[in-house]
Design goal:
7-stranded mixed β-sheet, globular, 4-stranded antiparallel β-sheet, single chain, Jelly Rolls, alpha+beta
Length: about 280
């Protein structure tokens, strides 16, 4: 059951309250897919990305490397929101933003005010704060052995910090799209809007990296680096804190088709909605 939280001192942006393609994917009861069923025929570990690049026929974008500042002060949730807003008013220094996300001290369990679970869903989306045209901060509560679809981030920067449990991230390159360094940014932006149920060959989705993150760790992705799928492969629940810069209300997802020979993936446009906003349940009626 969700707990009600005191409002944080930030401007909230109204969100749409409707079910959509991404909601349908998050309510799918399927468990974490096994390795043989997840577009891994062209997989590569981080140690063999050059081999994957040669196999895929596309140029992989460079992976961002961040430097952790050991002197960064610890922050509670309110301080985290304020620090993110202050930093983004100056510009968009990704290394500073990484350190700010890493500075959040989850041991005080403030995030539990925004925690909401639904056994009928793979995961729930719980909005903590959103400042229009700046950033959105969201808590995801992952049921055991559940996974997200492969998805992009609509041109936004995405930081994800694990607060509880462990999370697996699989990063992919879309041939001719996200993460393919041979495609310029303007062309990628033009591809954000897709026809409903359009399809691409499965071979155009190339696994480039797979890593498990435990509580306290943080990862980053944007469309220049590629797309990803997040899963909780454990028998225990997991919780992650996400910062989207800026927040967005629609993205693309890729999922294998059930019909035919299974060699195609369906590309869908997903409109984002929330299960709770600032600890209050959102009605989707």
């Amino acid at each position: 059951m969700a707990t009600t939280s005191a409002n944080m001192d930030v401007t909230m942006h109204p969100t749409s309250a409707h079910h959509d393609a991404c909601d349908k994917l998050s309510t799918d009861s399927a468990a974490v897919p096994n390795k043989d069923s997840t577009l891994d025929s062209t997989a590569a570990s981080s140690a063999s990305l050059s081999q994957s690049q040669s196999q895929s026929g596309c140029r992989l974008a460079a992976v961002n490397k961040f430097t952790l500042n050991p002197d960064e002060p610890k922050r509670d949730l309110q301080q985290l929101v304020e620090a993110l807003q202050e930093e983004l008013e100056k510009g968009k220094d990704l290394n500073r933003l990484y350190n700010i996300m890493m500075s959040y001290d989850a041991s005080g369990n403030e995030w539990k005010r925004f925690e909401y679970w639904d056994d009928k869903k793979k995961y729930t989306r719980n909005l903590i704060a959103e400042i229009p045209d700046c950033f959105g901060l969201m808590l995801l509560c992952w049921n055991s052995e559940k996974a997200s679809p492969i998805h992009n981030h609509a041109g936004s920067e995405c930081f994800m910090k694990v607060l509880q449990g462990s999370i697996m991230e699989r990063q992919y390159v879309i041939r001719g799209g996200e993460g393919d360094g041979s495609v310029d940014k303007d062309a990628m932006q033009q591809q954000q809007s897709v026809a409903e149920n359009s399809r691409i060959p499965r071979s155009d989705i190339i696994l480039t990296n797979e890593k498990t993150y435990t509580a306290g760790s943080c990862t980053f992705i944007n469309d220049s680096l590629g797309v990803h799928a997040i899963s909780n492969p454990s028998s225990e629940r997991a919780v992650t804190l996400h910062c989207y810069i800026p927040a967005y209300d629609a993205c693309k997802s890729w999922s294998p088709t059930a019909e035919g020979d299974g060699e195609e993936c369906r590309v869908q446009q997903c409109h984002i909605s929330y299960d709770t906003e600032q600890g209050e349940r959102v009605s989707h009626d």
